[in-house]
Amino acid sequence: MSAADVGSMRGQVEVLRAQIDSMQHVLLERTRSLADLQERIARATASARSSDGSVEIVVDASGAVVGVDLAGSSYAKHSPAALGNLILATAASAAEDIRRQVAEMTKPLTEAAGIDLPDLVPGVLGLREILEPRPSSTPASCDENWDRTVLRSSGNV
Asked: What is the C-alpha separation between 63 and 131, in angstroms, rounded?
């Protein structure tokens, strides 16, 4: 092997080293970005208040209820069944809001990636399905004749 060949190979090795260094830098930056995103999502909450203001629900990033605030008048305004349905509807609204927030936070990541888990492993849920807003469900109608309930008839309410 001639000295020119050795010099050429050293040049190619230096180019490859520079490319690897650049890739490592990009990987480190993306890892930091993902860690920041993960932390922001972990701290995220959403709240919703019922239209009459008697119920407020707070949910975490997974949609789990982490806070319930009932106005003192909520018990007088609503039957137990109606209040339960109002709590469920308000929780569903808060969960819908957190799904939208998380989808917005992850949008740059999912758009930049261009691929999702189902593209690699057919049949599994991907970020697109998990994060897209779902239609809100309407709670079942409640019995407005709540004075005939077990609680009322036994003198507990």
From this structure: 11
The DSSP letter of residue 72 is: T
Q: Which tens digits make up the pLDDT trace of 129-154?
A: 666 656 555 454 444 444 444 444 44
The angle at the Cα of 110, spanning 17 to 25, to the nearest 5 degrees, equals: 20
**CB within 8 A of 61, min separation 6: which ones?**
41, 42, 43, 44, 45, 98, 102
Q: What is the DSSP string of 114-136?
A: ---HHHHSTTS--HHHHHSPPPP
Degrees (nearest 5) of the Cα angle 28, 107, 113?
Answer: 50
For the chain, which ranges sit under pLDDT 70? 112-117, 119-121, 124-125, 127-157
First to last CA, the chain: 97
- Spatial distance between the Cα atoms of 37 and 131, rounded to a whole number of angstroms: 14
* Three-state SS at 109: helix
* 8 A C-beta contact, residue 56 and residue 90: yes
What is the pTM assigned to this prediction?
0.61
